[in-house]
Structure formats: structure tokens, C-alpha cells
Amino acid sequence: MDPARNPYRPGAGLRPPELAGRDLEIRELEVLLEQAESGRPGPALVLAGLRGVGKTVLLNEFATRGRTRGWAVTQLEARREAEWTAAAFRTLLASGVAAALREVTGSWGFGDRMRRAAGTVKSFTLGIGNVASVQVDVEALRGVGDSGNLALDLTELARSVAAAASERGVGVLITIDEMQDLPLSLLAALCGAAHMTGQRDLPFYVMGAGLPNLPGRLAEAQSYAERLFSYRVIGPLAHDAAFDAVTLPGLQEMAAWDVDAAEMIIEASHGYPYFIQQFAKEAWNHASTATIQREDAQSGIAMGLSVLDEGLFRSRWARATPSERRYLIAMARDGEGPSQAGEVAARLGKKTNSLGPVRANLIAKGLVYAPEYGQIAFTVPGFADFIAREEPTEISDPINGLRS
Ligand SMILES: Nc1ncnc2c1ncn2[C@@H]1O[C@H](COP(=O)(O)OP(=O)(O)OP(=O)(O)O)[C@@H](O)[C@H]1O
Ligand SMILES: [Mg+2]
Q1: pTM of the prediction?
Q2: CB 220 within 8 A of CB 185
Q3: Does the domain formed by 320-403 have CATH 3.30.70.1170?
Q4: What per-residue confidence (pLDDT) applies to 133?
Q5: Would you say the CB of residue 166 lies under 6 angstroms from ligand 1?
């Protein structure tokens, strides 16, 4: 069928034509926004899950829902790079909040509280040099949010902006994608601001998305984090939602799916949204009639897998050093895992402790995570199968293969 009309959207953060299976989380979000509007904010949602399950898309949906209700919404994405300092974070956050305030000025008006909020945003960036990017047409509010202590200043900022929002019966939402990559000090500062505004019933939410280690990172940053946030594990789609994700976008373009063909895509994808998009896209391109058939699905899955191998999987494989690869190969013997770190070490003929640095580097690169103490698992679904395709000899002959 015409590739130009292909509705499927494999990629990072690309909104799918059908956001399937996330009704529960979206309803929870709407309830939280409504509660905050009436002065009873609840614990903010934090989404955790493997690569490609649809965290970014869902977090973006949260932001859109907030904006639709007239909230001031700022969307940030954390980075792992060393230059992601407190100062850089401050500038980015301030520019984001300033932009969000400009967006809502029309509906919020520019009363005293708004003036104070804008002044705090400006003072928040004082003393860190780069004020140029933050365009706020008011005087900085000296002495508020400019102490240089990020936790204190962020709390002041949150309080000022949320006070302006509450006067209008709305709120402030900051979304942070890849939140597990924020340094602990920044996570702690965000927790502090959320804690204070929560105690004062101010409508201020920080909602994040990240890898499965995110709840652990937050707990490490701030011991009361688990009471500030409500964690949601975002996983593969259940069968009916996966069926919708495969078939509805086609129907919107007047293309039908043979039921068996759709089932093949669901099975091959294990319900993982990214894989669904990739396989369905290739199946569509292969189809020559207005109904996508079994052979289209079969060829779509094969094509899709090679695209995933080249992109999603190999790009990560390439990031691993030879010793890290040996570790991943040893893990892959457990399939999707999780693996016991002790067993992986034994397979490599090493002591668990001596592999600590290798494991830490793999975690830092975002390739694996520790679901529980002493365990280790892949962050990308299907990675073990990829390794089996890539390194068949090493997997089947671990001792000789792994030591070579
Ligand atoms: N609920 C859904 N229904 C159908 N497709 C979806 C759904 N959620 C996400 N997708 C699709 O899955 C792919 C991955 O989505 P997204 O980038 O949001 O995942 P992610 O969890 O943020 O991944 P990563 O951890 O790599 O950032 C995209 O192609 C998107 O269109
Ligand atoms: Mg993402």
C-alpha cells in the first residue's frame, strides 16, 4: 500500500495514531489535575518502564492534557552528560517556566501574583551568568529564589508560580523525561519543592518518566519520595490494546487487517509498542491489497526485525566495550532475564565484586538496570534475542566463547 499514507510511527516519542491501552493512567492524570485545581493535589505520577514501551508519548499526553486545561506546562528532558549541572538545569527550567507563563498570560492575566511569579523566574537565574535566554519583562524579585541554594530557590519558584496559577483555578506541571539521568542533588531539590507545595495545597506537580530504576533513584535522592509520587509501571500492551494499536490506525486509512495477520504482529511484538509500530509499518508497506494479509505480516516482521537490529539494538551494542559485551552475552543466556549477578559472574569465571565496574558502566550507559538487589536485566526488550542472533557461538558455548 501507499507508503505515504502509512499511519504507523515507529520512533522515539512519536505520537502513535492510536494511543492504545493507557486509559487508566490518563484518567488518573485527569483526576489529579482536577484535585489540584480544587486545592487538594495528590501524589504526582511517575512512569517507569523499559525502552520503547511508550513512556515519552504518555508523558507528552499528560503535558497536552495540562495545557488543554489552561495549566502552565514545562517539558524537560534530562541528560546524562557531565555538563548537565545545577546551573544548566536552572537555566533550562527557568526558560521553560518563563515560556509556559508567557503562553498562559492571555488567560491568566498579569495581576500581582503573576508579576511576582515572573519576577521569581527572573531572580531564579541571577548569579548563574546566563540570563540572556530567559526573557521575562519584569524586574527580578530580589531576595526570592536567588539564594544560590538550588533546593531553596526551586521551592520559592514553585511557590510563586503555583500561587499565580491557583488564583486562576489551574496549576503548574513540570514533566521530566529520562528522569533517571538527573543527578541525585537535582532530584532531591525537585522532591523538596514538590513536598513544600504539597503541604501548602498548591497546584504544582513534577511528573517524570524513566527507566525502571527511576523509583529507586528518587528514593535514594529523598527518603520521603515514595510518598510524593505515585509510581506506574508502563509495560507492554495487553492483548486487546495491542490489537487496537495494530488495527485501528489502518482502519482510519481505510485498510483492514486480516485477524490472523494482526495476531502475528501482536505475538512477534510481545505487545511492545515500539515493535508494534515497526512491524505494522513494514507489513503495510508490503501489502498490495486493501487488506493486510498473513504473508504481509510475516514479511513485515522479518523486515521490522532487521530494522530494529540495525537501529535500536546495534546502536546500543556498539556502545559496549568488549568486556561489557561479554557480560551482556553471559546475561543473555537467561533470555529476557532478570539474571542473578552472581550467576553471570560465575559464567564468566569471575567473582561478582570484580565485575562491579563493568556492571556499573553498563548501568550508566542505560543498557541494563538492577530490578532488585543482586539482579541485573536488560533495559531494551528483545535484547537477549538480538544477542543470540548476533553472537550465536558465544551464547551456545559460553565458557570458551566468553573467555575468548
Ligand atoms: N500506547 C501506545 N499505543 C501504540 N503505540 C505506542 C503507544 N505508546 C507508544 N507507542 C509507540 O511506541 C514507540 C515508542 O514510544 P516512546 O518513545 O514513547 O517510548 P519510550 O518508553 O519513551 O522509549 P524510550 O525509553 O526509548 O525513550 C513510538 O513509535 C510510539 O509511537
Ligand atoms: Mg522516551
Answers
A1: 0.93
A2: no
A3: no
A4: 47
A5: no
